[in-house]
Design brief:
Radius of gyration: 19 Å
Strand content: 15-25%
Shape: globular
Oligomer: single chain
Largest sheet: 5 strands, antiparallel
Structural class: alpha+beta
Length: 284
């Protein structure tokens, strides 16, 4: 996301946005009954959803909300530019949030031994799969945030465990599993007031459909669907990435393994959606 303040007058701000393909932004319900927010699309295509309604809009389209009464999710289906109008001054805080989020995501990926692009890949793969499942707005915002910060809890895991090249001992693995609990706690912290929306994803993304996952051993549809999405795409990315303790599988090998584990480790709904979109991953 790239944002630029175009103009401000009497509390109203015009903010230019560029969202790369499958970039996402969300609006939360406004605390002011007089608040006004709107979008004018300049280039590209946006997928806009609120409540259970979704529509695609292109250049020249205008979306106005006064006030925002429920979560609104905006996803760029291709590289897109638009102007965002807000009656509530927010650009400076907004800019700081965006910069902080990307800094945190980079720190998480690098601590875990991945390249800095790992968390963003997981987010894009998850959003694409969520679109295929037609998730409602609130779940899409939760999915995007939770996917980007799914491993934030690993910041609290000792490096000698996190980066150990060999198999972990049972005691070390018990410590590693705590990153899901730490992630939920960190995302629900008042220090990060806008991350709470993704905290359940961070907590549950290692749960498995047959109940063999952690931290709670949840089964089937008791697992939050956005977390079940991250479980699949995170496994796919791990299988196809170079790590100190494993050679990467080919894309075909990884896809076949996930297909084989449909209904065992992975939610069948998610696997079916994943299989429909996985061939698009290389172009993201």
């Amino acid at each position: 996301m790239t944002i630029t303040l175009l103009a401000t007058y009497d509390g109203v701000e015009l903010i230019w946005h560029e969202l790369k393909q499958f970039g996402l932004m969300g609006f939360n319900p406004s605390s002011s009954a007089k608040a006004f927010e709107g979008i004018v699309v300049l280039k590209g295509t946006l997928r806009v959803s609120w409540y259970d309604h979704t529509e695609l809009v292109g250049p020249g389209a205008t979306i106005a909300m006064s006030p925002v009464e429920d979560a609104v999710c905006v996803i760029a289906m291709e590289d897109t530019e638009f102007v965002y109008i807000s009656s509530i001054p927010l650009f400076q805080a907004y800019k700081q949030w965006v910069e902080l989020f990307h800094k945190m995501a980079t720190e998480i990926a690098e601590k875990d031994g991945y390249t800095a692009s790992h968390c963003e890949r997981i987010r894009k793969y998850s959003v694409l799969t969520g679109c295929e499942l037609d998730l409602p707005a609130r779940d899409m915002v939760s999915l995007s945030c939770g996917a980007l910060f799914h491993d934030i809890g690993k910041i609290r895991i000792p490096d000698e465990i996190l980066r150990k090249p060999g198999r972990l001992t049972p005691e070390e693995f018990d410590i590693m599993k705590m990153h899901t609990i730490y992630g939920r706690e960190m995302m629900q912290s008042p220090l990060h007031p806008f991350l709470h929306v993704g905290s359940v994803v961070a907590e549950q993304h290692h749960e498995r459909y047959d109940g063999s996952g952690y931290p709670y051993g949840l089964k089937g549809e008791d697992i939050y669907l956005p977390a079940a999405i991250v479980a699949v795409v995170d496994s796919y990315d791990a299988m196809t990435s170079e790590r100190p303790y494993q050679r990467p599988k080919s894309k075909q090998e990884a896809v076949e393994e996930i297909r084989t584990l449909r209904g065992k480790l992975y939610d069948p709904r998610v696997v079916d959606a994943f299989l429909k979109v996985v061939n698009k991953f290389d172009s993201l």
